[in-house]
Amino acid sequence: MKSDRKNFAEDYQAAFIHYLNGGDQEVALQRAYELGRRAIAGEQNILGLIGLHYRLVQAVKPQLRANLPRGQAIARSEAFLTQVLALFEMTHRQTLEMNQSLRDSERRKAAIVGSAFDSIVSFDVGGRIIDFNPAAEQLFGHTRAQAVGHDLAELILPASRHAAFQQTLDLCRERPEGGAGQRQEITARRADGSEFPVEMAVTFIQVDNAPFFTAYLRDLTERKAYEAKIEYLATHDALTRLANRNLLMDRVEQAIAQAARRPGQTLAVLFVGIERFKFINDSMGHSFGDELIRKIAGRLQHGVRDGDTVARQSGDEFVILMGGLQDGAQDALRGASEILALFMQPFTVDGHAIHLACSIGVSLYPDDGKDAEMLLAHADAAMHRAKAAGGGTVQFYTHDLSVFAAERVRLENALWSGLERGEFSVHYQPQVRVADGVIAGAEALIRWQHPELGMVYPARFIALAEETGLIGPIGEWVLETACAQNRVWQESGFPELRMAVNVSTRQFRHDGIIQALESLIAAGQVTPGSLELEVTESSLMDDMDESIRILNELRALGASISLDDFGTGYSSLAYLRRLPVDRLKIDQSFVHQMEDDAQKRTMVREIIHLSQAFGLSTIAEGVETPGELAFLAAHGCHEYQGYFCARPLPASDFERLLRQRRTGH
What's the rounded Cα separation, in Å, for the pair 97 and 414? Predict the structure, then answer.
């Protein structure tokens, strides 16, 4: 430092004498600026500069020009010092401002790095950590003090990633411009040893010829979980967690490819349709139905072989893929029978024991289809044939089922337009008093006259109407039409008739029948005692309390209640005692040919005696012979209907029958 000051004094003296002796002013200013810069750099402070200057003023007289006036010499001396001091002050201020700016920049940088959401880790070319921001501390579980100085790979990467990370560093060293900033997904390790996915980008930085790297790391755990959830939902049913149609089709195609490579192996597609689910869902509510579906899915999942796929096809339909079969039909039948057996035990939901059955359609590769779409379509057709046959059975696909499936689709499409086009009509079958043969009432029965299909009877389309939801509007139309016709007959002078109308499960469960009846009463289409509503046993059983409430409301509106098809279902004395019904209807399956069947006669007799014990009237349907009528009369049955009197008739023919009975012709 002393030598610096000596050199500075000598340089200052030379520049000062040159200026005092009339040297060029610009050159003098450049020298003054350089001296000021050197003073700021530490070669001289301001007080030392002033002392140096005045010592020179006293010492430089011998070196001045002889003819230089003293006043001019003093003035030029002061001017030089002033210029040096001004430049000194300006340079000093600029230096201070620059240093302050650098310090502010460093503080801003530190604040930004410290508050960054991403983890930022700086490390030297050897991989040693030189900085570790708070986000990194939180992410990895190491403090900055613990991290700095440690090898980055050793600290935050699992051993399996060390070699790959070293390759990244080597690339950055060899080609900083090419290796910097590249993003990659890697597995990182926390202080507790747990591993997790991160995205890492490494940037090359060089300051004052000192190179280092900065790694920006972002936790991908949440993003990966979200992506996995989206991928899962794309291939699985959200309600049951079973495979959905997308995943099912993919697995069927895989199974087909595998079977094609292994001669002698085949596969089966089982299409499972749940019986009565729509009724239960409508009756108990959708939350109850969802829980029931989950229970069914769980039972199916645990009831199949390891490696079989269980998928949910739609609301109450499931598909099971059985692969690797050696004896296709036998193995598939065995699997289907085991599925049927799963439904022998009730499903418990919210304390309710729900009894269900299923229908199963089976298609086999390659006989019934060589691709997933065909196999699924044929299994679906077989399942619907099983349902049409009564349900609770297994049906293998046959080629005629393609015709059946096409017919079903055609019928469904025609059904939607039939009501709008006026293709439906109501026929009326007389209900006759056994004691005197008087027509006391009529049952309204729907008929469908299709322009191409001809007469379509209820057995062919009612179940389909239930499935599609059209049974609601069709049922309301039958009720309105029958009540309006009965009103016409009463106004025409015929004796008052009781009009019996069937009520679908959907109408009954959604209070639709109550609203429809209230509207008819308000319109004057129904008089008290003129309407009887026929409900089936099955529509009442799943929620007895709700059924009783609805029946009581209907009776309060003036309708009587007939329990249809009695004896074919539950027929429990306990529930019969509770139900507010007026009449039992003996099913035609008991009446038909009962003269030759002692068991049927016993059933009919017991139903009549039971109704008498409970104070109910009885009506038998399907009566065709005098012997059947005589048996009913002998045991006290009140009314009958059937071909023995008349088949269901159009309104005009029924009116003609009434006139004949009235006149005796």
Answer: 90
Closest CA to 209 of 125, 293, 152: 125
CA pair distance 465, 581, nearest whole angstrom: 26
Structure tokens at 640: 């009958």
CA distance 318 to 245: 10
pLDDT averaged over the chain? 81
Residues contacting 356, CB < 8 A, separation 6+: 274, 275, 276, 277, 280, 296, 343, 346, 347
79's tokens: 């001017």
* Range of weakest confidence among 451-465, 567-581, 587-601: 567-581
Please say whether the beta carbons of 470 and 419 come within 8 A: yes
Q: Which of 66-75, 103-112, 196-205, 208-217 has the lowest mean pLDDT?
A: 103-112
The architecture CATH gives domain 414-657: Alpha-Beta Barrel (3.20)
Looking at residue 505, what is its pLDDT? 79
CA dist 310 and 225 (Å) reads 25
Helix, strand, coil % in the chain, rounded to nearest 5: 55, 20, 25
DSSP 8-state class, residue 423: -
Q: Are 600 and 568 in contact (CB under 8 A)?
A: no
The pLDDT, as a whole number, for residue 521 is 85
Query: How large a percentage of the chain has pLDDT more than 70?
Result: 77
Distance in angstroms (rounded) separating the CA atoms of residues 524 and 112: 82
Parse the chain into domains and list their residue ranges. Answer: 2-111, 116-223, 236-398, 414-657
What is the model's pLDDT at position 114?
46
Question: For domain 116-223, which CATH number applies: 3.40.50.720, 3.30.390.30, 3.40.30.10, 3.30.450.20?
Answer: 3.30.450.20
Q: State the DSSP code for 127.
A: S
Residues 47-75 pLDDT 10s: 555 565 656 555 555 455 545 565 556 66
The pair of three-digit structure tokens given for residue 397, joined into one six-digit string: 């696909």
Cβ–Cβ under 8 Å, residues 119 and 133: yes
Q: What is the CATH number of domain 236-398?
A: 3.30.70.270
* In contact, 213 and 123? CB cutoff 8 Å: yes
Residues 419, 473 contacting (CB under 8 angstroms):
yes
Q: Which of 289, 280, 283, 276 is nearest to 511 (CA)?
A: 283
Least confident of 323-327, 416-420, 518-522, 634-638: 416-420
Class of domain 2-111: mainly alpha
Q: How far is CA 239 from the centre of its chain?
A: 7
Burial pattern 257-266, b for ≥16 Cβ within 10 A else e, equals eebeeeeebb
How many other CB atoms are found less than 10 A from the CB of residue 596?
A: 8
Tens digit of pLDDT for each residue in 336-390?
989 998 998 889 999 888 888 899 999 999 989 999 999 999 999 999 988 877 7
State pTM to two decimals: 0.51
Residue of 314, 301, 307, 311 lying closest to 331 (CA atoms): 307
